[in-house]
Amino acid sequence: MTDLPASPPDSADLSAHADSTTAEPPAASAAAALPAENVARGALFALAALPLGVALWCVIWQLGFISALVAFAVVAGGAWLYRRGSGGRVGGAGIAVIVAVAAVTLVLAFLGGLVFDVASALGYPMPASLTDELFWGDYWYNITDNPQLWEEMTMTIVMTIGFAILGAFGVVRQLLAERKTQV
């Protein structure tokens, strides 16, 4: 036998039931709870990944490797830093900022790796050559006016771009999926 209520439910019980059935899904309410995205502040925070990425690249470069790890670390670190600075959101502008920071980091990292190669090829001692005017003149000459250097580096550049895309792909894909839930 079923227990029936002794009296009909009062209006407070009915309104509570109605509110629970029309409530927003958890993802929508969580996205609404986040403040608006502060792109400028997020970009400033994400820039902190740049020197760390260059340093990591130079260490790995000196070991004789090109690694997708650097691109992954810069994109993941940049996204984490961006999120802290932006107020928690990473929208389309945020993803563009993170990818731009990663691209600039990888270009500067590649040029930084060449510092070690040029110093080694020309017989400059490291790290003393970093403060040597003569070294920097030779470095910039080789970077800007030495086609043989760029011919030798073409395959390395292609591999660097490929590994960068590979390293960044997963993080960017996750950020794009997150963005869809925030809209």
Nutshell version of this structure?
The chain has helices at residues 11-21, 26-33, 39-46, 49-62, 68-86, 92-122, 133-145, 147-182. The chain is mainly α.
What do these coordinates show?
The protein has one domain. The mean pLDDT is 82. It has eight helices and no strands. α4 (49-62) runs parallel beside α6 (92-122). It has helices at residues 11-21, 26-33, 39-46, 49-62, 68-86, 92-122, 133-145, 147-182. It is mainly α. It comes from Microbacterium fluvii. This is DUF4199 domain-containing protein. The chain crosses the membrane at residues 54-82, 94-116, 153-172. Keywords: Membrane, Transmembrane, Transmembrane helix.
Keywords:
183 residues; 8 helices; 0% strand; elongated; DUF4199 domain-containing protein; transmembrane; transmembrane helix
Helix content: over 70%
Number of helices, where a helix is a run of at least 4 consecutive DSSP H or I residues: 8
- Estimated share of beta-strand residues: under 5%
The dominant shape is: elongated
What is the terminal separation in angstroms?
49 Å
Q: What's the average pLDDT?
A: 82
The ordered H/E elements are: HHHHHHHH
Total count of strands? 0
Q: What topology emerges from the helices and strands here?
A:
Blueprint: H1 11-21, H2 26-33, H3 39-46, H4 49-62, H5 68-86, H6 92-122, H7 133-145, H8 147-182
